[in-house]
Design brief:
Heat Shock Protein 90, 3 domains
Length: about 500
Amino acid sequence: MKDEIEYLPVTIDKGHIITIGERLYEQSIELVRELVNNAYDADATRVEVTVAPNEITVVDDGEGMDFDGLKQYFNVGSDMKLQNPISPKFGRNRIGQFGIGKFASLAAASSFELITQKGDFAARVVFNKERWMAEGDSWKIPLNTLKPDPKRGDGTTVRLIELKKPFKPEHVMEKIAEGVPIRAKNFSVFVNGYRVIAKTYSGNRIPVLHGTKYGIIHGEIVILPAYRASKDDMGIEVKVKGVTVRRELFDMTSWGKAPTRIRGEVNADFLPLTSDRSGFIEDSPEYESFAKAMEQTMAKVKQAYNQLASVHENRKASRALKEALERVHRALLLNPEFSPFGVVPVAGPQKEGIGEAAVEAPENQVKNGEVNLEELQMEAQSAEEESDSNAAAKEALERKRKPSLRIATPNAVVRRLKFGEAGVTCCLDHLGEQGPECMTEGTIIYINRDHPLYKRESKKKEAHILNIARLITQEISMMKSPENPRDAYNRQSRLLRDAFRDNNGSSR
């Protein structure tokens, strides 16, 4: 006796199809992006999105659909785009995969209306969620054949009717700019009449180009100027077929504030995606190859970022050191007896010190109580040139007496404070966190930029200048009489007070 074989029908619950569609999209606004990508896959050159309070309309001039195309369009889970990944007209890499986005649309609107035209065929389909669910096991959707409109031409119009929540046009534009191949040739998208433009960043640009056995990785990473730093949209956009799948920080999480200044995008069309297209299959050999290439890229980005940060910090440190030295020089002019370099001649009535050291202005260069700086500078330059040959031997001897400047790093900032013919050289350098706050060798003052107190005070401009001036006056005061620290401390206090005295005589 043979066993009788029975057959069980395979059924799919309609509500489950809609639920699957909903779960493919974390935000309902992404449905609009999906509709625009469908237009891209259909070789559209122009897509017009209209966002109204109660509905959204997406109109494209793509290839449209005939009757068989509509049947394919409503085929749940169709792999047609996977089997035909290249569009016929423009040769575009098609984005869509499973064709389930239209069902997800019913999570945001009560009806999904589609009007399409291809050649001499035109039709209208209304996909109403409530009516469709009420028909039980029937999976049929009503189709009305229309008279083709020659003025309209080929293309498709989709309307999401009776939205469950309103959409803001600016948010729709942001989502399209991020999730649509907006830079593609022969393709433009408009939202309420405004063209969607891809994001651009200004700053230091680092091109990305890697060849792997799975495909090409290409793109660009930008280091933004410091004033453009922001926590919004941090990371590198990783795109597949022109669509951002995910933002990645890679190893930037250990770079401190660096991610706030780094943006960009890389394209890797060969990366395999998860079913919801929100991530990558990370245990695949394709992703491993991508990760290895990006590790090399991010090492270059970090190196470039550190160089830019050093340049910025050096500029800031140089400005602070310059102002601090100017203030210390002014304080020494007010207190010449505190100078370890000797007393500098001070100009008489209606005369003033010029440049970094006090210089007496000749009578013929004082007009109406003011100094003719241009004439004085020219005369000083001429005098300097005449004395160069006579002073050569003296300078050679002086260099032997002075200690050589030891610079620990290439990022050292060096400036000289002249007081008469003497002075000190100030060097801001990286001496390590365990190194001294400052130290003096001969007439060279070293200030440690790695010292915790320096790091703290350098965050604000005024505190930065004050701290540098404090250290310089401290070392200069010790040069005057190192055997008596108490007197040195008192001199420093006086110099620091006068260094930050305003023109009206009050201390800042």
